[in-house]
Design a protein that fits this description.
Number of helices: 14
Structural class: alpha+beta
Organism: Taibaiella lutea
Bound molecules: flavin-adenine dinucleotide
InterPro entries: FAD-bd, FAD/NAD-bd_sf, Flavin-dep_Halogenase_NPB
CATH architecture of the largest domain: 3-Layer(bba) Sandwich
CATH superfamily of the largest domain: FAD/NAD(P)-binding domain
Number of strands: 20
Protein name: NAD(P)/FAD-dependent oxidoreductase
CATH class of the largest domain: Alpha Beta
Oligomer: single chain
GO molecular function: FAD binding
Distance between the termini: 76 Å
């Protein structure tokens, strides 16, 4: 039987960040990953805050070498109205950029770095069972590609299995999300007219209609990721094969019709539905959940990888302390800060879908100070309590929206 200090389930951003930080503290770490990398996963735009976690994990040199598209801000467009956030102009003194990149390449880079740091990454190996003893040590059963199984004994488990949600499923911890079911259809496309755009490499979110928004995420490879997000009913209006449907959807968006009319698909458009999920608890005897396994809300503000890597960074430090014999208050030191980050984003996600944020984003009378404070939230600095749009997130957003709405310039 393989014996290790920490077993990490999943080689996504949360698993690899946690693994690398724990390994640096001198512990033996093993990663078990269900798929062969590089593998596709959606989530292609990062926020500056996640670079802090990637730096602590020792991944920055390798990532810089990849020359991914630098993301210096984000633009929101509704017809002719534009709201542009630039990370240089933000309240929090943090990173001023992030990246836009295909996740297959990004995640494989992180996993390769783990291997270089001496962490074995076992691909094509699926965790199918976990037994935890009273002292928190565990025996995990792994299924290999050929169906054979073997066991790993560990002192502690980090579950970074993302949409796999291994521990919540095995231990019946699943809880319905507060978010309604939404659906996406997305693809990677060539972008022959990218250079005709005003800011060709900027990530842009288009408000397509009351219940649909679109992302365009240009990569440094020349390929652009495009995705429609809406209620499932929106997609029922379109018929045919996925590519035909996607072309019809693009043709219905004036801002994208011309840009992509001659574009080729790198892969057939894919759909995903009902991605929001959460659990009863973020930790238990001998384990901690990180990344998407804790809670995933919605893609609108690109918060997924940031919440994944920051939760992994926080969890890793607590695992190190616990393995060193210190007492850890997991509820206070892990669940509360992790939940806080999620709940700040929840305010902004809900504010996007109920229209409150539109009153702020597309107001022409908003002050620079408020904009910089909101920009820091959108940069992922959702633990900076000096920012009123973090500390009193719900009240600040509602109050500002109401104020801007009541003082807006009426166009006659
Ligand atoms: P993952 O990246 O999912 O990695 C988990 C790994 O665990 C996988 O490789 C999986 O194969 C492995 N695994 C699963 N089950 C098992 C098992 N039984 N045994 C072993 N291994 C297992 N986030 C952003 O930051 N920016 C975005 O722009 C963005 N856009 C999104 C758009 C959409 C439509 C959706 C749905 C999500 C988006 N996200 C975005 C969210 C992002 O996809 C996730 O938050 C992020 O991938 C979470 O990272 P993770 O490490 O927790 O999990």
């Amino acid at each position: 039987m393989i014996q290790t200090d920490v077993l990490v389930i999943g080689a996504g951003p949360s698993g690899t960040v946690a693994a690398a930080i724990i390994k640096k503290a001198g512990f033996k770490v093993n990663i078990v990953e269900k798929l062969q990398f590089p593998r596709f996963v959606i989530g292609e735009s990062l926020l500056p805050r996640c670079l802090e976690a990637l730096e602590e994990a020792g991944f920055m040199d390798a990532l810089n070498e990849k020359k991914f598209q630098v993301k210096s801000g984000a633009k929101f467009v509704r017809n002719n109205e534009i709201c542009d956030f630039t990370f240089e102009k933000q309240h929090t003194d943090g990173w001023k950029y992030a990246w836009q990149m295909p996740r297959a390449d990004f995640d494989f880079t992180l996993a390769n770095e783990c291997e270089k740091q001496g962490i074995p990454v076992a691909y094509n190996q699926e965790v199918i069972d976990i037994k935890i003893a009273e002292d928190g040590s565990s025996i995990t059963t792994i299924k290999e590609e050929n169906g054979a199984t073997y066991e790993i004994q560990a002192r502690f488990i980090v579950d970074g299995s993302g949409y796999g949600r291994v521990i919540p499923k095995l231990f019946n911890l699943e809880k319905p999300s507060s978010q309604p079911v939404r659906k996406t259809m997305f693809a990677h496309l060539t972008d022959p007219r990218r250079l005709e755009q005003e800011e060709p490499n900027r990530i842009v979110v288009y408000v397509h209609s009351d219940d649909c928004w679109i992302w365009t995420i240009p990569f440094s490879t020349g390929i652009t990721s495009v995705g429609f997000v809406s209620s499932p009913a929106f997609f029922d209006k379109y018929n045919g094969e996925p590519e035909q449907m996607f072309r019809a959807m693009l043709a219905d968006e004036p801002a994208l019709k011309r840009r992509f009319e001659k574009a080729d698909f790198i892969f057939e458009p894919r759909t995903l539905q009902g991605w929001s999920a959460t659990t009863d608890t973020f930790w238990g005897n001998g384990f901690v959940l990180t990344g998407n396994v804790t809670e995933f809300l919605d893609p609108i503000f690109s918060s997924g990888v940031t919440l994944a890597t920051v939760s992994a960074q926080t969890a890793a430090k607590l695992v190190i302390r616990q393995l060193n014999g210190e007492k850890v208050d997991w509820q206070k030191e892990y669940t509360e800060p992790t939940n806080h980050g999620v709940s700040v984003f929840r305010t902004y996600v809900n504010g996007w879908y109920d229209g409150t944020l539109f009153k702020i984003f597309f107001a022409d009378n908003k002050s620079e100070q408020f904009k910089e404070q909101i920009c820091s939230v959108l940069a992922g600095y959702v633990w900076d309590m000096t920012n009123p749009f973090v500390k009193n997130h719900e009240k600040s957003v509602r109050t500002l929206a109401k104020y801007l709405d009541s003082t807006k310039t009426e166009v006659s």
